[in-house]
Amino acid sequence: MKTIELTKLRTLALVDRPMPTITAPGEVLLKVACIGICGSDVHYYTTGRIGSQIVQYPFTVGHELSATVVKTGPAVLYLPPGTRVAIDPATPCFTCDQCLKNRENTCRNLKFLGCPGQSPGCLCEYIVMPASSVFPIPNNVTLEQAMLSEPLSIGYYALKQSQPRPDSSIAVLGSGPIGLSSIASAKYLGLTEIYATDKIQSRLAAALKAGAIYASSPENRDIVSDILKLQPAGMDAVFECAGQQETVDQAIELLKPGGKLMLVGIPEFDRLSFAIDKARRKELTIINIRRQNHCVKPAIDMFASKAINLDFMLTHHFPIEKTQEAFELVAAYADGVIKAIIDM
Questions:
Q1: Which residues contact 296 (CB under 8 A, 6 or more apart)?
Q2: d(CA 254, CA 267)
Q3: What single-letter DSSP state applies at residue 116?
Q4: What sign does the CA torsion over 191, 193, 197, 201 have?
Q5: What sign does the dihedral 93-79-66-2 (CA atoms) show?
Q6: Spans of all domains in the chain
Q7: Does 2-136+310-343 match 153-288 in CATH topology?
Q8: Burial 303-322 (b: 16+ CB within 10 A, else e)
Q9: Stretch 84-95: mean pLDDT, rounded?
Q10: Which of 11, 141, 217, 344 could form a disulfide with 137 if both were Cys (CB 3.0 to 4.6 A apart)?
Q11: Are 251 and 287 in contact (CB under 8 A)?
């Protein structure tokens, strides 16, 4: 089968690999339909690592996908061949202390698609997943939307973890796919005071489409001053979705006393710093977001109900033969890209 492998920094190769086979009764063989390129995939492409997770070449990245069922193991009775599905890229063990506490996203033995040391990714024609990670989609949900259920599930999980009230005011710093998913989730949950920032003009327009009432670039405006003029009391929660020191600093300034700093973005560096005097005096709560937990099905339901439409995020399509071109586009934030998709 056609497979894309990362062979060294910024180098992807199209190779032929054997088709995977079902080895356990609860597994599902899937024909991959489309794959979204995530920022974490680009980290591996450009730097070869995310923190302690270091690529050993060759390696296949990718974890955002939709697919069609080809075959199932004997224990899987509800996914007939031809079923269109969304995928949770995480495979928890279901037996460790974290899983038993309903924290499968921090499973001690987690295997995550496209994560070095855990599992190869989905940039290939076929993949085998446990049925617990496979979610049928209704007829009115497209395969592209099924793929987007993965980033949407992260945005939705981040909002849930912030425990918002209908009158909460929030800021989303970084309006890429995860930031936009956070904005859309906030709107879905009934929030109206949603402020967004990004350095790319096309993403500011997308933030307004997703549900923000304010969208501006810190390169053109003093966004802290602007937002605090509109909300003098400050933000109840700020979602840092850029993985940058400057956005963390902005978040500390924007938050009201008792506010919550939600760390959603993945930095390319090992340490962040905080203005501890301000954070302490405001008694801020800092919450890390580790992917998502039990939110893929709600994300699919949001698409199915038409409560959320993120099709505007699907900006670029590529065949598998042009995967390297797609990664370079995303790495350069070029041509107004939000989500680049590899069509299989």
A1: 86, 87, 88, 135, 149, 150, 153
A2: 20
A3: T
A4: positive
A5: positive
A6: 2-136+310-343, 153-288
A7: no
A8: beeeebebeebbebebebee
A9: 98
A10: 141
A11: no
Q: Give start and end residues of each alpha helix (H) in the chain.
A: 39-47, 97-100, 143-161, 177-188, 201-210, 223-230, 245-254, 276-281, 296-305, 323-331
Cβ proximity of 312 and 336 under 8 Å: no
- State pTM to two decimals: 0.97
User: What kind of architecture, by CATH, is found in domain 153-288?
Assistant: 3-Layer(aba) Sandwich (3.40)
Q: What is the pLDDT of residues 273-303, one digit of tens each?
A: 999 999 999 999 999 999 999 999 999 999 9
Residues 321, 297: contact at Cβ < 8 Å? no
Please give the structure tokens belonging to residue 232: 């003098």
Give, in degrees to the nearest 5, the angle at Cα 206 between 261 and 172. Answer: 5
pLDDT tens sequence across 114-169: 999 999 999 999 999 999 999 999 999 999 999 999 999 999 999 999 999 999 99
CATH architecture of 2-136+310-343: Alpha-Beta Complex (3.90)
Burial of 98 (0-12, 13-18, 19+ CB in 10 A): middle
- What angle, 0 to 180 degrees and rounded to 10, lies between the N-to-C axes of helices 177-188 and 143-161? 70
- Cα–Cα distance for residue pair 339/318, rounded to 1 Å: 11
Report the alpha-carbon distance of residue 203 to residue 337 in Å, rounded.
Answer: 9
Q: Which helix (H) or strand (E) holds 54?
A: strand 53-54
